[in-house]
Write a structure and sequence with these properties.
This protein is of the alpha+beta class. The chain is built from 1 helix and 8 strands, in the order H-E-E-E-E-E-E-E-E. The strands form 2 sheets. It has a 4-stranded mixed β-sheet, covered by helices on one side. It has a 4-stranded antiparallel β-sheet with strand order 4-3-2-6, with helices on one face. Strand 7 and strand 8 form a beta hairpin. The longest helix has 59 residues, at 2-60. It is rod-shaped and about 90 Å long.
């Protein structure tokens, strides 16, 4: 009789451990999903803000300028923001994640290249003779 009670206790403890492990796996997956969504939303915000500023400066014509602050981290992680004016796209890349958005003008440069990484921090976006130039301040 004592052996049977001990065996039932072992099964009960094993079932609780399995339930705990299953719960932990579900929690870890959901936490990972939330982190991915937060990173995606922040990347989208950075991309759209940059896109809107470039498009506004391009639309307003020669002599227009605006400042934009590019955050140093994306959800605590390093990232790159690349402008590819040949294909009229902005890319925000963090780890394996990539988000992109369009720009309306093909003449976007950092004064030397049309495919370039935007520097983190405060940048000046200006329109000079229908060429949009992005430079770190």
């Amino acid at each position: 009789m004592k052996g049977q009670i001990g065996l039932e206790t072992i099964f009960a403890v094993a079932a609780m451990i399995i339930l705990f492990i299953f719960s932990f796996i579900l929690y870890a997956n959901r936490n990972s999903d939330v982190s991915f969504v937060n990173t995606f939303l922040e990347a989208e915000r950075i991309c759209r803000t940059t896109e809107n500023t470039i498009n506004q400066v391009a639309s307003d014509g020669h002599g227009t300028s605006a400042q934009i602050n590019i955050p140093s981290k994306l959800e605590g992680e390093d990232y790159n923001i690349t402008i590819d004016s040949y294909n009229r796209r902005i890319f925000v890349k963090s780890g394996k994640n990539l988000f992109s958005c369009p720009i309306i003008i093909q003449n976007v440069t950092n004064s030397t290249h049309r495919l370039f990484d935007v520097k983190k921090g405060l940048n000046l976006i200006s329109n000079s003779d229908e060429i949009v130039i992005i430079q770190k301040i």
